[in-house]
Amino acid sequence: MNEGDRRIRSVLVVGGGSAGWMSAAMLATMLKRDCTVTLVESDAIGIVGVGEATIPPIRLFNETLGISEADFIRETRGTFKLGIEFVDWGQVGTRYFHPFGPHGRNFDMVPLHQYWLKTREEPGAFPLEDLSMAWQIARAGRMARPVPDQRSLLSTFDYAYHFDASLYAAFLRRHAEARGVTRVEGKIDDVTLNGETGFVESVTLEGGQKLEADLFIDCSGLRALLIEGALQTGFEDWSHWLPCDRAVAMPCASAGAPTPYTRSTAREAGWQWRIPLQHRIGNGYVYSSQFLEDDKAASLLASRLDGEALGDPRFVRFRTGRRKQHWNRNVIAVGLSSGFLEPLESTSIHLIQANISKLIGLFPDRDFDPATIAEFNRIAHAETDRIRDFLILHYKLTQRQDHELWRYVSAMDVPDTLALKMDHFRRHGRLIAREMDLFAPPSWLAVHIGQHNYPEGLDPLIEHRGIDARDYLAKLRAAMAAEAAKLPSHEAYIAGLTGTAAAA
Ligand SMILES: Cc1cc2nc3c(=O)[nH]c(=O)nc-3n(C[C@H](O)[C@H](O)[C@H](O)COP(=O)(O)OP(=O)(O)OC[C@H]3O[C@@H](n4cnc5c(N)ncnc54)[C@H](O)[C@@H]3O)c2cc1C
After folding, report:
1. Burial of 435 by CB count in 10 Å (0-12 exposed, 13-18 middle, 19+ buried)?
2. CA distances, 450 to each of 238, 402, 444 (Å)
3. 119 CA → ligand 1 middle, Å
4. 308: CA distance to ligand 1 center in Å?
5. Is 355 close to ligand 1, i.e. is its CB under 6 Å away?
6. 132-181: per-residue pLDDT in tens?
7. How many helices (H) and strands (E) does the chain have?
8. Which residue puts its alpha carbon closest to atom 5 of ligand 1?
């Protein structure tokens, strides 16, 4: 390599959870020449292993790695996800569905939901979610791939996966090692910084082995060994908006066929997830330690499982917020080391993917151009802030007053960026999109309407149009239900894909 060649020659990925192996697999695919990729992980520490629900962009990530859906679903005991059912969030006894995909199909310049809002109290009115193809399929317990033909209603939904996070990390490990990634097992107990630049030079394992690299990817989870431990980057705390700071997880035996959706049920001091896999159901209670003790959370969770508990409760402590910089000097934080937003909308694995994509798009050389680093951090912050706002919306809109947590969140002030969006919706039912919004207007609409937050007025244009859409809406709903009824069951679909026999 000549003197002027400033290419990165070595990358060290610190950590072997989902973040570590997703990063290593992608870097090995992208950096084919003259760059080594090494991953170090500690078997004694292990991985957090609870990220089991995802959102649709994960499909692009797997496709980029050349992973077939059938292999992935088989190896991770995965199932399909068409959205999230929220139970008891607006009020106890209510439910709604946040679908992947829009509600119906616009027939006019005025968005369809405005017509739905206009008729929602008239005889024959029905829930907004009935206009969602994803919900119609989910409700029927069915599954199929969306079709490419835009004229078909079956093109109007999207999907993601549920999977066993430990199996996913193992699957990606095989994939990455086959593409040249070297794995080192051991516990890092020291990090050496360059005295002049403050850049990380090496990490040292217990036993003395030293690992050097040009670029370090910090995937060490909540420990944030390099980005915080060594570089002291700083953390922006959002727990005043998202007060849950604990989770207890407890899988249970399956109860019937897996549902093609996640369920989130609001509880006294947080909420409970239910994620169906092929071989078990993942469950957890995310709660605020201000309002509930650990033992009580575990016993409440154990009493609310659909099947026999499989194993002891596992507790995770976290702080909601993000690192002040995701990229600092020659260290990029990916995964839990970059911060954490509670898993209410299954966004953490997506944020891993987003940081990896940005790294590929802004890959440095050994000069580590500050403008490149600044751009990476600008985008990363915008992405995280927009997701934060969407999560806060779920809490802010609750009408529950039955426990302290719900009284607190319904009364709290929200970030200005969220207040602006809520104000537009309140006035005219408009859904304002912001730069780097991961969740598109249909997602925001699902939460507003699902939690009975109806606007004070409609889009003024709707009165100018003078269209009576009742017949159109009713026919659309019936056509969607009819399409859903023709699809195979979720279980049969998985069996067909993976070549296994469906349960009778
Ligand atoms: C309660 C909960 C529920 C979640 N649910 C979802 C969900 O449904 N969907 C979703 O997308 N995300 C979810 N997440 C987030 C998701 O689990 C994580 O984003 C994902 O697993 C990535 O974790 P990670 O790889 O960053 O960290 P980890 O899995 O914790 O991995 C850290 C790695 O660093 C290594 N390490 C740490 N210290 C050292 C050391 N000193 N020396 C050597 N190695 C070290 C460990 O051995 C391990 O390999 C959830 C998170 C929590 C806490």
Report:
1. exposed
2. 25, 19, 10
3. 46
4. 26
5. no
6. 999 999 999 999 999 999 999 999 999 999 999 999 999 999 999 999 99
7. 15, 21
8. 51
